[in-house]
Specification:
Helix content of chain A: 40-55%
Strand order of the largest sheet of chain B: 1-2
Oligomer: heterodimer
CATH topology of the largest domain in chain A: Rossmann fold
Number of helices of chain B: 11
Radius of gyration of chain A: 22 Å
Number of domains of chain B: 2
Shape of chain A: globular
Number of helices of chain A: 16
Order of helices and strands of chain B: EHHHHHEHHHHHH
Helix content of chain B: 40-55%
Number of strands of chain A: 13
Largest sheet of chain A: 6 strands, parallel
């Protein structure tokens, strides 16, 4: 099992020591996380790594997963989409079913805790049944809720208002709520299969298996085939670059199965890439972390030309691998990339093509920007920082009247 | 004045660590007029975050603008003239946050007075206001001598540099003083070194640059002593 000390060579021993001191100040608190899935999805991925690390710091951590039927998950998926801005109508019967499934789950939870962190809307209603079982209830929203559907948000707002605090990933996702809101930015795990160091042999093995030759500079975008990721825009940019500079484009990702537009977008991508031998489209399974890691490491330039984005962890992953990244100027990408510094922000296929050419002709600059990007991620977007934020949050919530808490 | 590198201080320097939790307040500005209105109305803690604390919360490597208002003017409004004005204002010239607020208001009002249009942020670059809560913790790192102080400076996190250099100015109530120079002055004298540290243009440096500059100054004044810590 990966231990806290395994992160010391990456973030520095002082960061690990700091976590241990912070945890010692907090004391052996009981900390329950509740979400709706044990595997798959970003939240489960984070918890799988964060829970053992928190335990190693002396906390008594439980990770509970609520169970539900298909109807429940259809309702909560609709809530998720509504928070992201889709217009959604939830009938009173659907809302009753949401409450009922939460009630059934609550019966199974008999623990008592100091802190409960409830992730996203699915288990949010549990607080109505379990409140006396924990001292501090905090709601964690991982979703881009910057422009939520009004009706669904009104319903959730009433529930979330019962919590003593909430946590969002970006300041623009914060809401009008009657309690303190905190910012914990997303993070990646540098030791996970998607981000760990790979040897050149491992990288080459993946390229051989996927049939990718390294005869020209590789431009890569890893994302679902979803219109907001603008894969067609990437192909347009690539064609503009190709008129001047030899290179190849790899578009790697899964089909967006839960997106009704998915097949249409994929067909559009295939059509746009037709008759172009230097474009390779890879449909990868959702657990192809090793392959994505190798592709990112083998690439010369990584693109994330989204037209809408929550935080954009694929950008973080690419930056961590020391790559020059070109990203759409939206959502959290704006926070991560700074022109000429840690990457380039672009607004159009033309802008994307321009910056690809710019970097292909200046490999030394691309290397320098990649190095800066990696350092930026090391200080702000690794899992150790998230653990520190959790500990800090708990200390602050135990002393809610203090703005500066001196231990 | 010569002092021994191992001369013990009367009071050892106890480094503090500083953990910041940004707290978005759910308000934003999409143009310069809205920013001005917000600067007039929002709590001082919000101004404090965007002028000082944000450099600890998140900073791009090689950040050129010293506060978030200047950076927003440059990147979101793409108004370099305003960014220049907001970068040149030094909050340490004022005695309290009320005066700092008035200084920012004056810059923005004067700028808006002179232009015939309202600069708008490009889409996706709205200014989202935050404040922060802070946990301060006594670190295990202590310096009993100047030799240990040099060693410790290399070991502590940038959060400590922030705490002892930025927070200290408001805590001590002497805007040109910081914890480091205060400790050196009260324990060892060394007026030239103390003056040099207080002359560091801290608002323009990143936390990393401040640490390097500090080490450079100590090296310059106490070369032999500092070399022993390399």
């Amino acid at each position: 099992m990966i231990g806290l000390n395994d992160y010391a060579p990456i973030v520095g021993q002082e960061v690990i020591d700091q976590l241990q001191r912070l945890a010692a100040c907090l004391g052996p608190r009981r900390f329950v996380h509740i979400n709706s899935t044990r595997t798959g999805g970003g939240v489960a991925e984070i918890l799988e790594r964060a829970v053992p690390l928190l335990e190693q710091l002396g906390l008594d951590v439980k990770w509970e997963v609520i169970q539900g039927d298909q109807e429940f998950f259809e309702i909560t998926k609709a809530m998720h989409n509504a928070l992201q801005g889709y217009k959604v109508d939830l009938s009173p019967a659907m809302l009753d079913h949401y409450r009922e499934i939460n009630r059934e789950n609550a019966r199974k939870f008999t623990w008592e805790s100091d802190f409960v962190l409830v992730h996203d809307p699915q288990p949010a209603y549990l607080i109505n049944f379990l409140r006396p079982q924990a001292k501090h209830w905090i709601w964690r929203c991982h979703i881009d809720a910057s422009r939520p559907d009004r009706g669904v948000w009104k319903f959730l707002q009433e529930i979330v208002s019962q919590y003593e605090a909430s946590v969002f990933s970006m300041s623009q996702f914060a809401q009008n709520l009657p309690h303190p809101q905190y910012l914990i930015r997303p993070s990646i795990d540098p030791l996970s299969e998607k981000n760990r160091d790979l040897s050149t042999v491992e990288v080459q093995e993946v390229l051989d298996r996927l049939g990718i030759e390294r005869d020209k500079p590789i431009i890569l975008q890893v994302s679902r085939f979803d219109s907001f990721k603008d894969p067609v825009g990437v192909i347009q940019a690539f064609r503009m670059v190709r008129r001047h500079t030899p290179c190849k484009l790899v578009l790697a990702g899964g089909e967006a199965i839960d997106d009704p537009e998915g097949p249409r977008i994929f067909a559009e991508v295939m059509e746009a890439a037709k008759n172009e031998p230097d474009i390779q489209i890879l449909l990868l399974p959702p657990d192809a972390h090793h392959e994505v890691n190798a592709l990112q490491r083998a690439s010369d330039i990584i693109v994330q030309k989204s037209t809408r984005e929550g935080f954009g962890l694929t950008v973080t992953e690419a930056m961590w691998k020391g790559k020059a990244v070109i990203g759409g100027a939206v959502g959290g990408i704006v926070l991560q990339l700074r022109d000429y510094n840690t990457g380039f922000l672009v607004h159009s296929p033309e802008g994307c093509a321009f910056r690809i050419r710019y970097l292909l002709h200046r490999p030394e600059m691309a290397r320098r920007m990649g190095k800066m990007a990696q350092e930026f991620v090391r200080h702000h977007f690794l899992i150790t920082r998230k653990i520190r934020d959790y500990l800090t949050l708990m200390i602050l919530r135990e002393n809610p009247t203090e703005r500066i808490m001196e231990l | 004045m010569k002092i021994s590198p191992d001369q013990p201080a009367e009071n050892p320097f106890s480094f503090r660590e500083c953990f910041l939790m940004p707290m978005p307040i759910g308000k934003k500005a999409i143009n310069l007029r809205e920013l001005l209105q917000a600067v007039r109305e929002l709590d001082e803690s919000v101004l404090y975050y965007h002028i000082f604390q944000s450099r600890l919360a998140i900073t791009q490597p090689g950040e050129e603008y010293p506060n978030e208002f200047a950076r927003w003017a440059a990147t979101a409004l793409q108004d370099i003239k305003l960014a220049e004005k907001l970068s040149s204002f030094d909050p340490f010239e004022y005695e309290n946050m009320a005066q700092v607020r008035q200084a920012v208001i004056d810059i923005l009002e004067e700028y808006l007075w002179d232009i015939p249009f309202i600069p708008w942020a490009r889409s996706g670059f709205e200014f989202h206001f935050c404040e922060a809560s802070t946990v301060v913790m006594r670190s295990q790192i202590r310096a009993h001598t100047l030799l240990e102080f040099c060693e410790s400076l290399r070991k502590v996190g940038l959060d400590s540099i922030y705490y002892h250099f930025f927070e200290a100015r408001w805590r001590l109530g002497v805007l040109k003083a910081d914890d480091f120079s205060f400790w050196i002055e009260t324990n060892f004298g060394l007026p030239e070194l103390v003056a040099a540290i207080r002359d560091i243009d801290i608002y323009f440096y990143s936390l990393r640059e401040i640490r390097d500059t500090l080490l450079g100054l100590i090296h310059q004044h106490l070369g032999e002593l500092c070399d022993r810590t390399q």
